[in-house]
Design brief:
The protein has 692 residues and is an alpha+beta fold. It folds into three domains: 151 residues, Roll (Ubiquitin-like (UB roll)), CATH 3.10.20; 387 residues, Glutamine synthetase/guanido kinase, catalytic domain (Creatine Kinase, Chain A, domain 2); 124 residues, Up-down Bundle (Four Helix Bundle (Hemerythrin (Met), subunit A)). 49% of the residues lie in helices and 13% in strands. It has 24 helices and 18 strands. The strands form three sheets. Strands 10, 11, 12, 13, 14, 15, 16, 17 and 18 form a nine-stranded mixed β-sheet that branches. Strand 8 and strand 9 form a beta hairpin. Helix 21 runs antiparallel to helix 22. The protein is globular and about 100 Å long. Bound molecules: adenosine-5'-diphosphate and magnesium ion. Adenosine-5'-diphosphate binds next to strand 10, strand 12 and strand 15.
């Protein structure tokens, strides 16, 4: 607990320091080359690395190893094997071979594959990702791996992410070469800010909705919400502080650069922001962060809720995906420098991103589509379901000047350098910019539509590939040019003009924006079942096939899995709701009506005025009858799920089941305010959100 941070940091990671110390120089260099340049791994080094890794792990007290992977369930999967190998005379040795390091064969039949692999073809492979360091968790050496089927189709989120990183690297290097830069590898970097709620374990245990669905399906608003805005960045309560300190320590041990911990907008809501890293590592680390948040919360008597909308009426939780691109020499390609108007490289990359977001709005929307996030997109403090790009006034001015074919005016230039101590491009600190779903923030873009529970791989696969496609087109065009300067200027002007409709600096939460966006021809895919069918639109299939990120079959399977997941999530929620209404809420209401009626009857026999009891019993009886009507309607909706394709089923759940759930919930929430606290069968929003 009390180790100095530098000593603690990465102490459970087989990282660069451990490799340098434990690997022969040649092996170390070969592995480094793979890590740095993404070149294939030399199989000869695997045995040596495996052995060194095992010795290191044993010295840290590990007994098992696992291939740690990210199947399409959204969580991480692991199957533990011990290092134990029988030796002569009934003895045991601890062994770990290169083969075991490089490849695993978990049974793939129980992971979702969307029809890619029949259950009888159960074989699946995991393959080591040497670019993400192995680490120890729970006395187990975890080896980050990719997961694919026997026939080679990918069954996970990591493989396409790595492929998309290759694609953007390839195309960016081509463009940089034209600009006179010899660059072997370009990487995208990500810093995901993670929001979450902490509630008391005892309260959680009393709510089957939280246990089974991750969110409250009932709950009248607490008398106090977030209207006083007294929680954001507020003083952190001691118990929460202890949790955060413990979480930092755990994250540091496994090499996650946890940097900022603070209270968020909603009561009981908090955030952790790490320092950015290469995208696949940031993805692994975010998965690990979510897991550790849950685990550490438990030690402190809390439950960590990662659902996008655990509570109605207060903010939901998102994940801000801060994203940039940098070269192998560490140059940030989205850094505008002091004079962005003259920075051709910056303008080309900026234009590439703007074009990508405009052309693949639907894909970016789909990358953040889930039943949970549907409660959040477009709601309070969250970005709307419409994609737009915020570049700020300064950059906006430059792009406008380019579009109009004039020099960037001096007056505008002074505004930019108004105070010499300030950076030339102001960071987005203003309130209204918080509403942008995709905002330029100085030297990176912040994609804010992601839901808190999501694996960030999806969003980054879409982003990397879409930008790779812009860069490919730019490189193709400029490779043919005689005069690079003139050709780039022309290209930038043309593309900015073509895609300016996606640029929006105003308030994204304003209803007027929805109308304007429609007039601009921007897509507005409001719900998951509305968005997902567009995943396999021809232009999207063409994109992924061209860049070798997905095959058409892989895309169809992913679409199917996500549609099914949506329907299943809603089915579980609806069933949980029916169960809680029938077995908890209705009995509580009926028994209270009974008590009131008893009292009323007794009062009548002794000739005392019983108007109060009669009135209360009547109102409550009527409201209970409404709830019974609506829960019956919900049950009927569940009985009538049409036998159609995944898209049709998902849409039915959205239109019929979700609507029926909302009606039933409204009744239940009304009843909550009429039944004595002691008789209400579950902790209320006040209990959950304002514990001490
Ligand atoms: P801001 O004040 O603009 O929000 P911060 O410096 O607080 O910026 O960073 C917010 C998040 O963005 C952090 O997780 C940080 O590591 C990440 N970030 C900063 N620079 C980059 C970059 N070049 N690429 C990706 N993420 C970045
Ligand atoms: Mg934030």
């Amino acid at each position: 607990m009390n180790h100095p941070v530098p000593e603690l940091f990465g102490s459970m990671v087989f990282g660069d320091a451990a490799m340098k110390e434990r690997l022969p120089k040649a092996v170390y260099q070969s592995l480094q080359q793979t890590i740095r340049e993404g070149s294939p791994l030399d199989p000869a080094v695997a045995d040596v690395v495996a052995n060194a890794m095992k010795d290191w792990a044993l010295s840290k007290g590990a007994t098992h190893f696992t291939h740690w992977f990210q199947p399409m369930t959204g969580i991480t999967a692991e199957k533990h094997d011990s290092f134990l190998t029988p030796a002569d005379g009934g003895a045991a040795l601890m062994e770990f071979s290169g083969k075991e390091l490089i490849k695993g064969e978990p049974d793939a039949s129980s992971f979702p594959s969307g029809g890619l692999r029949a259950t009888f073809e159960a074989r699946g492979y995991t393959a080591w990702d040497p670019t993400s360091y192995a680490f120890i968790k729970d006395d187990t050496l975890c080896i980050p791996t990719a997961f694919c089927s026997y026939t080679g189709e990918v069954l996970d989120k990591k493989t396409p992410l790595l492929r998309s990183m290759d694609a953007i690297s390839r195309e960016a290097c081509r463009l940089l070469k034209l600009l006179g830069k010899d660059c072997k590898r370009v990487t995208t970097t990500v810093g995901p800010e993670q929001e979450y709620f902490l509630i008391n374990k005892e309260d959680y245990a009393k709510r089957r909705d939280l246990i089974l669905t991750g969110r409250t399906l009932f709950g009248a608003p607490a008398p106090k919400g977030q209207e006083l805005e007294d929680h954001y960045f507020g003083t952190i309560r001691p118990r929460v502080k202890a949790f955060m300190d413990d979480l930092d320590q755990e994250l540091w041990k496994v090499g996650v650069y946890a940097k900022t911990e603070h209270n968020e907008v909603a009561p009981a809501q908090h955030e952790m922001a790490p320092i950015f890293e290469t995208t696949n590592i940031a993805t692994d680390h975010n998965q690990l962060t979510m897991e550790l948040m849950r685990k550490v919360a438990d030690r402190h008597g809390f439950v960590c809720l990662l659902h996008e909308k655990p509570f109605d009426g207060v903010n939901g939780s998102g994940k801000h995906n801060n994203w940039s691109i940098s070269t192998d020499s560490g140059e940030n390609l989205l850094d505008p420098g002091k004079t962005p108007a003259e920075n051709r490289q910056f303008l080309l990359f900026l234009t590439a991103v703007i074009k990508a977001v405009d052309e693949y709005q639907d894909l970016l929307r789909i990358s953040v589509a889930s039943a949970g996030n549907d409660h959040r997109l477009g709601a309070n403090e969250a970005p709307p379901a419409i994609l737009s790009v915020f570049v700020g006034d300064e950059l906006g001015g430059i792009l406008h000047a380019i579009e109009e074919g004039r020099d960037y005016a001096a007056a505008e230039a002074t505004k930019m350098t108004g105070a010499s101590v300030l950076p030339p491009i102001s960071k987005d600190t203003t309130d209204r910019n918080r509403t942008s779903p995709f905002a330029f923030t100085g030297n990176k873009f912040e994609f804010r539509m992601l839901g808190s529970a999501m694996n960030i791989a999806c969003a980054n696969i879409m982003l990397n590939t879409a930008v790779a496609e812009s860069l490919r087109q730019f490189a193709d065009e400029l490779e043919q040019a005689d005069d690079l300067a003139a050709a780039s200027a022309l290209l930038i002007k043309r593309e900015i003009t073509a895609h300016k409709r996606i640029l929006f600096n105003g308030n994204g939460y304003d209803d007027a924006w929805v109308t304007e966006a429609e007039a601009r021809g921007l897509s507005n895919l409001r719900s998951t079942p509305e968005a997902l069918p567009h995943y396999t639109d021809q232009k999207n299939v063409d994109l992924f096939v061209r860049h070798g990120v997905y095959t058409p079959a892989e895309m169809a399977s992913r679409q199917e899995i996500q549609l099914e997941e949506y329907a299943k999530t809603l089915a579980i929620e609806a069933l949980t709701m029916v169960d809680m209404i029938r077995r908890d809420i209705l009995p509580a209401c009926v028994s209270y009506v009974h008590e009131l009626s008893d009292t009323a009857a007794s009062k009548q026999t002794i000739g005392v005025d019983n108007t109060t009891e009669v009135t209360l019993a009547r109102t409550l009886s009527a409201a209970t009858a409404d709830l019974l009507t609506h829960v019956t309607a919900l049950e009927n909706a569940l009985h009538c799920v049409p036998d159609t394709d995944a898209a049709g089923t998902a849409m039915y759940y959205h239109d019929a089941v979700l609507a029926a759930m909302e009606a039933a919930r409204a009744d239940a929430d009304k009843l909550e305010s009429m039944v004595p606290k002691t008789r209400w069968p579950m902790p209320t929003y006040s209990d959950l959100l304002f514990y001490v």
